[in-house]
Amino acid sequence: AATRAGRRSEDLPGGARDGGAAGPTDGPIVLHPGSGALAKCWPADRFWSLAEALRGEGRHVLVVLGEAERARWHEAEIRRWRAAYDVRLPDSLVELEALLGDAGAYVGNDSGPTHLAAAMGVPTVALFGPTPPHVWRPIGPRITVLAPPSPSAMGWLAVDPVAQAVAAALDLPRGAPPTADEPQRQAPRSA
Predict the structure, then answer these.
(1) 20 to 30 A from 155, CA-CA: which of 14, 39, 67, 147?
(2) Cα angle: 136, vertex 164, 173; to 5 degrees
(3) Dist. CA 109–CA 91, nearest whole Å
(4) Cα(91)–Cα(16) distance, rounded to whole angstroms?
(5) Cα 21 to the center of its chain, rounded Å
(6) Beta bridge mates, 105
(7) 64-73, pLDDT tens digit by residue?
(8) Dihedral angle at the C-alpha atoms of 113, 32, 46, 138, nearest 10 degrees?
(9) DSSP secondary structure string, 40-99?
């Protein structure tokens, strides 16, 4: 079967598959609250609030923590997340790709995993602040970028617009490329 990235599922680790469509909407919502640069990270408490809202809607939330979060976060914070959510700590891009393969949607900061999710065709909500999305936005068929009008600290973004963007991402049509006049979605900005 064809995958989001155009490779055959048997070529992917973990058997990632989607039958040629853009991805299973009933798959988990993957949250990646990290980035290599702390300034590019939406506050962890807002990711927590988003996870709570998604769980309240009956969604399975899978939280992916990378090396930066493991080094930056206190062990108590990681235990808190693990007690409440399905938390994964992939040790390689191969493991990360396998986790993203079944995602219904993905939410993350301007980071490598966000670019990978977008390139795989996972409906992706990319959160920007201090970096310009016109330069650094992910490339892929199903992307919503939430960004301030000009570079700003990540505190500009409230939880509700992100939750709305996730809901919209889950409603994106499957398998069809975006229209020529809308190659990638740009969500309304928060005040």
Answers:
(1) 67
(2) 80
(3) 19
(4) 17
(5) 18
(6) 29
(7) 999 889 889 9
(8) 20
(9) GPPPHHHHHHHHHHHHHTT--EEEE--HHHHHHS-HHHHHHHHHHSEEE--SSHHHHHHH
